[in-house]
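Tutorial sheet, problem 5. The two components below are modelled jointly, 636 residues in total.
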Amino acid sequence: MLSFISRRLLISIPTLIVISLVIFLLLNLAPNDPMAQVPLTVPPEVKQKMREALGLGQPLYIQFLKWLIQFFWIEPQVFIDYLFDTSFSEGKQRVISWQTRSPVMDIIVQRMPQTLWVVGMSYVVGILIAIPIGIYSAYKQYSVFDQVGTFVTMIGYSVPPFFTGVFVIVIFSVQLGWLPSIYDTTHSVVDWETFKIQLKQMVMPVMVLALQTTAMINRFMRATMLDNLNQDYVRTARAKGLSEWTVVMIHVLRNSMIPVITVIALNVPAIFGGAIITEQVFKVNGIGQQLIGAIYANDLPTVQTITFMFAVLIVLFNLLADIIYGILDPRIRYD
Amino acid sequence: MTNNNNIAGKPRSKVRDVWDQFKSHKGALLGAIIFFSIVFLVMIGPFLWPFDANQIDIRSRNQGPSLLHPFGTDQLGRDTLARMMAGGRTSIAVGLAAMALSLFFGSFIGVTAGFYKKLDGILMRITDLFLSLPLLPLLLVMMLLFREPLSEAYGPERGMFVLIVVSIGITSWMPTARIVRADVLALKEREFVLAAKASGTSDTLIILRHIMPNVLSPIMVSATLGIANGIITESALSFLGLGFPPDFPTWGRLLNDAVDYIQQFPERVFWPGLAISLTVLSINYLGDGLRDALDPRMRKR
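Model answer (structure tokens):
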């Protein structure tokens, strides 16, 4: 098992480096000038100085190397300093946003909680809805419940979040006036009343994202349950007189959960991607909105950092899914 | 099923078998009908409808549904039905073109990786790499970076079309490549390929004449999913304001424009959203039915 994990870990390091190179090259080879906004009255030699201050004067490979060092060496040091009050990172150059001239990571840290709350909550809600529905749909295949469930799943698959989001805003905010259409991140929960307000503003973004998750996981859950329900061990379990509950919920469910858990892990990055759009719809000032804002403002360091963080998430969760699969299902370990 | 009693009859063609299985899937049939009606409407509609999508009539702005304007008009008095049809044309064209490009890449890489053992490792590593790229952020970045040079080269609308189609194409070929490769790997070991090789057929001919027809069904299923993916991605980009220029209607763009007026005219978001959802839903059902119909194991039951 250890060698399996370490091999997978070793493969993901070159993958990450190549991905960072791809993102870096895409951003840096494209025609684009960060000095475009600077007034024409600024003399060219001053502009040149400004460019060098942004680290743009050097050859491409040095820029890339510097960025790698900043991202993988200096930023973790800042994090350790923050945790333990040490001073490893003092005087070292961090990744600076062109937009705000402050370190990109500081802004990301400010934005992260909102994204994590909305995305994380929606994922949990989606999974909690999808699994029981998937189990029952498979158990009663082709029943009315199954047909309706499959149809709802298909809708969740097909209707994009920018329409479901806008649609629930029209119904619940504009027509009925029950829920706020804008997510207020400055709102802090202190007592029951403020908790209710927080709950109200979270319902719509969470449900919109949860619909996507539900659709995906429900479909998968149903399929693996169906696969397992026809296996010989199920017949054996029934033949030896186990109750239907034990057969389905213990024997079949446990085996069906193996692939479902890996799919849950694999889709975490995708749900972050979906959050980009949902955050835009509900005006949540999370990572996704920061990315869109940075794209509009031509703020390449921020775009690069956030995009790369998404890539890290994908590689990390792929790795996690593989390891979980290996732990849960001994047949998968190829060592 | 119904076709078990014609054993003594004349042999049935494969197309006929597929069609019979497809017909028995009600959702797929309905999906096909809806999808082709939408395509027909947006292709033929603009020729029959008296209003042009960009015709501004400021005196009749912000109207509700009426006989003259069944879907109402927008803030500049442009007819919403005309804009919906023009938008659908672009959205579906983007979906089809992006699908074609992604299928081309996907099947090319899949067949090459499956057929030539030497290239398999490197091509599959590249596929894995593409699968670990964060696609939506990268698409947004590509829109940001290449919008202006391409608009200058081909004009704002055509440049954007090329950019969107190419970006969707090169970020969505991976699933097709994987499925095709797996099928080719199995096919390559079959006797008819060996026979073709023994009779001195060149690799290109083996691929074109013996491999391709046999991997056509997974490719067709990916094609349907590819159209849906293309339409959704284009709409998402336009919705985020990084797609086509503002005066050029697409369904995502119309939805984006309608969101600005959501307090005054909430019904406006409904039409483009419904169009996108209905199209994608019908394509997905079509794809489901096609997958069942093309799978011989499903048919023999």
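Marking note: Chain B touches chain A through 44 residues (CB under 8 Å). Full credit if you identified this.
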